[in-house]
Design goal:
Layout lengths: L1 E3 H4 L16 H19 L3 E4 L8 H14 L7 H4 E4 L5 H17 L1
Parallel strand pairs: 1-2, 2-3
Helix pairs in contact: 2-3, 3-5
């Protein structure tokens, strides 16, 4: 299962929250990431998130999308690092940033 952010959502990601404008991390999480994540769990599949082709991802967008996913979930959050695979050939550093946001949110819940 895959999400290509640029093709399926936007190539110009916005800020953290919906009220800050279009294509926010919050909106991405609510409309795409969380439903696909839950579907991947149900189907026992990996979820690949392809970030390539965008015009830059702010830390607020990524933290709200991925850290916020963990904060939103009541169950099924501990395996997030096993289910979510990030593809970012354009900016490989984003992969570690996202893993850090997910780990931090999991640690905060425990």
């Amino acid at each position: 299962m895959k999400i290509n952010v640029c093709k399926e959502y936007t190539d110009t990601p916005g800020g953290r929250y919906k009220e800050q404008g279009d294509f926010s991390g919050q909106d991405f999480r609510e409309t795409m990431l969380e439903p696909k994540y839950l579907e991947a769990i149900m189907k026992n599949e990996k979820l690949q998130i392809d970030l390539d082709g965008g015009y830059g991802y702010g830390s607020s967008f990524l933290e709200e999308a991925f850290g916020g996913l963990i904060r939103d979930l009541k169950d099924n959050y501990k395996q997030a690092l096993d289910i979510i695979e990030i593809k970012s050939d354009d900016e490989p550093k984003l992969i570690e940033d996202i893993k850090r946001y997910i780990k931090g949110a999991i640690e905060a819940k425990e």
